[in-house]
Write a structure and sequence with these properties.
By secondary structure, the protein is of the alpha/beta class. The chain has three domains: 199 residues, NAD(P)-binding Rossmann-like Domain (Rossmann fold, 3-Layer(aba) Sandwich); 110 residues, N-(1-d-carboxylethyl)-l-norvaline Dehydrogenase, domain 2; 134 residues, 3-Layer(aba) Sandwich (Rossmann fold). The protein is 42% helix and 13% strand. Strands 3-2-1-4-5-6-7-8 form an eight-stranded mixed beta sheet, with helices on both faces. A six-stranded parallel beta sheet has the order 11-10-9-12-13-14. Helix 11 packs antiparallel against helix 12. It is globular, with a radius of gyration of 24 Å.
């Protein structure tokens, strides 16, 4: 199929590259010429494991990037809208989605063939039917279901493994306003064998996306609430509680040979310093606001966000418990991105932790193997010193805080034992074995 993808951010670029890898002819559209030039040169403007390799494999072959939206839409059968939907505290901002809908509507006005417009951006339930569809009809002068089709195809990508998630999905959800729109989307995903495809309406497809992220966020905040309770009680380590929890058959089911496999969701039942990224915080907040706007309070999800917002402060409390006044204390930070295998700094717990340390007069030195450049954009220039290695971050520190679960940090116990054995190590992700440190504390102890 010939596909146009509007937006070359995290969702749009990964979708476009992976669709091309599966044999479709893809044109990615962006208004930023510099991003378009980067993509056409084989350099992705975002870091995502495996993305650069697939981009280089397809660019100039089955894929190209352009600023020419009209040319892309006219030459394709289906257009995916994958632009940002930021949350302003009260509602998601649909200005980019609306603008693309207006522009695409103008373009398909003069297309003789049936064209399907699919919303891939994360939007609250009702957006595709009540916002996008009317704009397309008004701008094109055509009726949805006759002159063109409208669909909603949510993404279920985890940053860091987004390429793998797209290429090996656990499900494909397609929503549409008529059978033809659904059929075209089904054809788009026909190269994926043995994957269950759920056909539904657009509103339900939108809700499935929000429900999925709300569930994961709830698991994390549930675990953090238990961790904080363990700390308050004393004598209980949340890491051991978690190990006992994970032995339940619904998190580690037995397979036919009697062995056990760990369910992927188990990782969300682990305590830490809070979740971040572009999806979970924004989507849960948006769902709560959308519920309130429709007269349906959502106190559970409201509390999920409250717990997460307060969790980074637990790290500061641990440091103060051991070091007292943090003024002039040297604190090493390991990890800046909100999770490993990505450079995404959006709502990363490292931001409030480092800013608080700075406000308390501490001297901060931080290291991240990938996100250093993105992190620099989130702070004033003198907020912290950038370390170029783990060793540099821990060398003369009074305390070291692990914030991101990078695999590289598995070597930290041996490194600290050699470089700075008496340093206080604060494990904000409960990633490492506490017995390997002379001085250790962490979330949930």
């Amino acid at each position: 199929m010939k596909v146009s993808v509007v937006g070359t951010g995290y969702v749009g670029l990964v979708s476009g590259v992976c669709l091309a890898e599966k044999g479709h002819e893809v044109v990615c559209v962006d208004i930023d010429q510099s991003k378009v030039d980067m993509i056409n040169s084989g350099q992705p403007p975002i870091y995502e494991m495996g993305l650069e390799e697939l981009l280089k494999n397809n660019i100039g072959n089955r894929m190209e990037a352009t600023t020419d939206l009209a040319g892309a839409v006219k030459s394709s059968q289906i257009t995916l809208i994958a632009v940002g939907t930021p949350f302003d505290g009260e509602r998601i901002d649909l200005k980019y989605v609306k603008q693309v809908a207006r522009d695409v509507g103008d373009i398909i006005k003069n297309k003789s063939d049936y064209h399907v417009v699919v919303v891939k951006s994360t939007v609250v339930p009702g957006t595709t039917d009540d916002v996008v569809l009317p704009i397309l009809e008004e701008q094109s002068g055509k009726k949805a279901g006759a002159g063109f089709g409208v669909g909603m195809n949510p993404e279920f990508l985890t940053e860091g493994v987004a390429v793998k998630d797209f290429m090996e999905p656990d499900r494909i959800v397609i929503g549409g306003n008529d059978d033809q729109a659904l059929d075209v989307q089904a054809e788009l995903y026909s190269p994926w064998d043995n994957v269950e495809v759920l056909r539904t309406n657009c509103k339900t497809a939108e809700m499935i996306k929000y429900s999925s992220n709300a569930m994961l966020a709830t698991c994390i905040s549930f675990s953090n609430e238990l961790a904080n309770f363990c700390t308050a009680l004393g004598g209980i380590d949340i890491a051991e509680v978690t190990r006992g929890l994970h032995l339940a058959h619904y998190l580690q089911p037995f397979v036919s040979d009697g062995a056990r496999v760990r369910a992927p969701i188990s990782s969300f039942f682990e305590a830490g310093c809070g979740f971040g990224g572009s999806c979970l915080p924004k989507d849960v907040k948006a769902l709560v606001a959308h519920g309130e706007a429709h007269g349906q309070p959502m106190p559970l999800l409201d509390t999920v966000i409250k717990i997460n917002r307060e969790q980074p402060a637990r790290v500061i409390k641990i440091l103060e418990k051991h070091l007292g006044d943090l003024k002039d204390r040297k604190i090493g930070i390991l990890g800046l991105a909100f999770k490993p295998d990505t450079d995404d700094m959006r709502e990363s717990p490292s931001i409030p932790i480092i800013k608080t340390l700075k406000s308390l007069g501490a001297s901060v030195r931080a290291y991240d193997p990938i996100a250093a450049e993105e992190a620099a954009k989130c702070f004033e220039p003198d907020t912290y010193e950038r370390a170029d290695s783990v060793e540099s971050a821990v060398a003369d520190a009074d305390a070291v805080v692990l914030i991101t679960r990078w695999d590289e940090f598995n070597a930290v116990p041996e490194l600290i034992a050699r470089v700075n054995p008496e340093v206080l190590f604060v494990d904000a992700r409960r990633m490492l074995d506490k017995s390997k440190f002379a001085r250790y504390d962490g979330i949930g102890m």
